[in-house]
Amino acid sequence: MKYKSCKYIQGGIAFRHDAVSLCNKLCGTKRYEKFNIPYTENFYEKFISVREEAIENCKKGTLPHEGCLSCPYVEEKEWDEDTRFKEIEITHWVHCNCGCCYCAMLPVTKGKMVKSKQNSPYIELFPIIKRMLKENRIHPNAFFSVTGGELTMLKEFPDIMKLLLKQKDASYGFCLQSNGIKYEKLLSKAVLKDRRTSIVISIDAGSREMFKLMKRKDNYNDVIKNLKHYLKDAKSNQDRIVAKYIIVPNVNDTKEEIDKWIKTCKEIGIKTLQPSIEFCSQVVNPGTFKEKQGELYHYMKEQIIANGFEMITYDFLESIIKNKSFDITIKAEKE
Ligand SMILES: C[S@@+](CC[C@H](N)C(=O)[O-])C[C@H]1O[C@@H](n2cnc3c(N)ncnc32)[C@H](O)[C@@H]1O
Ligand code: SF4
Ligand code: SF4
Quick one: 10 and 116 in the same domain? Predict the structure, then answer.
């Protein structure tokens, strides 16, 4: 049966710091509040039923909420009958040992480094994941995006990872986003286990001085050292260790700094780079898209290819640049 839906409705779950959501994807800057289920009693059961209802409604031709109507992730096709969770986002904490000037979590952390690993005010995910596994709700080839916060600052991270990595008859892919200040051997273990897994480290600078401005911490040398460590661990999967650069207006938005970043990545043996722009516009750059970000983003892409790197990108950045707007739903409305 063909019907309109998206892969997140069909098999997505996002554990955010304040709520669990059906929609994993960042759809422009709009937040669809009513789609979030707060972590109150029975939130897990509620989530399961909201999702089942959403799939049934899609089958009848009704997408779950108005935001979906202009969402580029909607597709009309024969969807897999297996609706176990396949796209799982783990981002339920904000603890971090860094203070990036562009951090998407700034509205929550207010720029403070929330360092405590103890007495977290947020939910514990380990028992929930355990329950999902017991109830066979996780697809054996599921993909997990672990963002946060900083995963090396999440007390239950080792337990969650060990549990997922030891599952028999399953191979999970992970996008593991870390600032790289602390080394975590479980990341390497995950990279060796599944080719889809990547470790993504945002350096955002080609020098210690720029790193300090961007990240408000003096750990440039540690990040470079840990990147080398992950590269060594990754053996034949070295292309899965990714260095990233987020262009932030008036801070690191120069060709010189980008060139230095590319040169350093080449020297330490990085194979894959990710260019990006600051796109949580409400944080640093309220509401306005700066054309220079787009120009530099294209410059970065050209240089990455010219220097023989592999490249990964967010699919929605070109829409932002083309429309000069952070609302990626505009693309779908225009078509
Ligand atoms: C919120 S961070 C948390 C993970 C980890 N602490 C880190 O910095 O990589 C998740 C990802 O979002 C990116 N990010 C954070 N704030 C952003 C922003 N305002 N615009 C674009 N990307 C952002 C980071 O570079 C990182 O790759
Ligand atoms: S907003 Fe987009 S990604 Fe989110 S559930 Fe709707 S269609 Fe899916
Ligand atoms: S390292 Fe990640 S979570 Fe920490 S401040 Fe930077 S972007 Fe935010």
Answer: no
